[in-house]
Amino acid sequence: MSSRRKVTIVGAGNVGATCAELVARADYADVALIDIREGLPQGKALDINQMGALLGYEPRVVGANDYASSQGSSVVVITAGLPRAPGMSRDDLVTTNERIVAEVTARAVAASPDAVIIVVSNPLDAMCHVARAVSGLPRARIIGMAGILDTARFRTFIAWETGASLKDVSTLVLGGHGDQMVPLVSATTIGGLPLRALASEGAIDAMIARTAKGGGEIVELLGTSAWYAPGAAAAQMVDAIMLDQKRVLPCAAFLEGEYGIEGLFVGVPVRLGAAGIEAILELDLDEEERELLARSAAAVAEVVRVLTPEA
Predict the structure, then answer these.
(1) Whose CB has fewer CB within 10 Å in the chain, the N or C terminal residue?
(2) 191 and 137 in one domain?
(3) Predicted local confidence at residue 310, as pLDDT
(4) Under DSSP, is residue 169 helix (H, G, I), strand (E, B) or coil?
(5) Beta partners for 33?
(6) Max alpha carbon distance in the chain (Å)?
(7) Residue 310 counted as domain residue
(8) CB atoms within 10 A of CB 216
(9) Which structural domain, as residue segments, surrounds residue 153?
């Protein structure tokens, strides 16, 4: 029996399987990959285990249709739910995915009552509310994956536009995971130089627009949601928690007055470590950015209103 700690990933679709692969390759924890579809998690787990023989990682990945193998996990990643289809708004997903995320959260927390929960299912901001309501966990232990993905997209477009290395691009995208996300141009640098010194306002506006539509662009091309970058973003959060890295990352957190927002999950910079969210960091936003964040929070509130009252 392995003495490694354990990470559970619920949903063995493309995002969940990518996250499971990356966590296994990091070589510090066993992985339980859970899905209601018989054969799917078992087959993907077997494939990931056999890749370990080629790449040299040791964790055991177990695929299952129940939560027995999930017992005692330190982190649970919830990717279960329907993906967004072409032409479908995030709001259209709310009712169906609310039911799925509620059931998954209840079963996962029963098996792993001390776990930190990372929500990836869409509409992300609303599904975080569902997980919080069902689990009753403190806000430090319910975290949404959105800002890391949106930031990765913005960084990519900045590097392409400026010809810079991705490694030198530093930025943050805050707000809800949707069209009204808020890329912080004022906090964006390339090797320490402000973005505005290296790109025109028109080019910056185009990059912001493409970032906001980043998920939709991939849906139009593929006919389904993205998975490589979302899976990697979730895995980065798992690493930060499991390895107590104290990373400062943009994540959806339940705000209780921070940034003037009360009672909503909104993307903000947080410090992620072993306890989950160990601090919510308040940036000194300029007036325009604060107004955009307030608008983004209002858009999140509209989606949350679709939820059943107990969520």
Answers:
(1) N
(2) no
(3) 64
(4) strand
(5) 9, 63
(6) 58
(7) no
(8) 18
(9) 147-304
Q: What is the mean pLDDT of each run of 10 residues along the chain (311 residues)?
A: 87 98 98 98 98 96 98 98 72 85 98 98 93 98 96 98 98 90 95 97 97 93 93 98 98 97 97 98 93 95 83 62
| pLDDT at residue 306, as a whole number | 84
The sheet that has 169-170: what strands, in order across it? 169-170, 189-190, 193-194
Long-range contacts at 261-264 (CB < 8 A, ≥ 24 apart):
261/293, 261/294, 261/297, 264/125, 264/297, 264/300, 264/301, 264/304
- Domain stops at, among 90, 109, 144: 144
Question: How deeply is 270 buried, as exposed, middle or buried, from its count of CB atoms within 10 A (0-12, 13-18, 19+)?
Answer: buried
Q: Rounded to whole angstroms, what are the CA distances from 214 to 40, 47, 84, 155, 250? A: 28, 30, 13, 12, 17
CA 170 to CA 191: how far, in whole Å? 8
Q: Could you tell me which residues are beta bridge partners of residue 173?
A: 183
pLDDT of residue 3: 80
C-alpha–C-alpha distance, residues 42 and 37, integer Å: 10
Same domain assignment for residues 75 and 161: no
> Which residue is it, tokens 């890329």?
183
For the annotated catalytic residues, the residue numbers are 177
Q: What is the CA radius of gyration of the chain?
A: 19
User: How is residue 193 written in tokens?
Assistant: 């130089």
| Whether residue 170 is found in the same domain as residue 108 | no
Specify the residue for token string 């995971």. 177
Instruction: Give me the DSSP letters along 22-33.
Output: HHHHHTSEEEEE
Residues facing 255 on adjacent strands: 264
- Both 155 and 297 in one domain: the answer is yes
The answer to whether position 309 is within a domain reads no
First-to-last alpha carbon distance for the chain, in angstroms, is 38
Please state, in angstroms and rounded to a whole number, the distance separating the CA atoms of residues 124 and 40. Answer: 24
- Residue 42 maps to a domain: yes
Residue 225, φ and ψ in degrees, nearest 5:
-70, 160
Residue with tokens 């983004």: 296
Task: Give CA–CA dist 61/53, Å, rounded.
Answer: 13
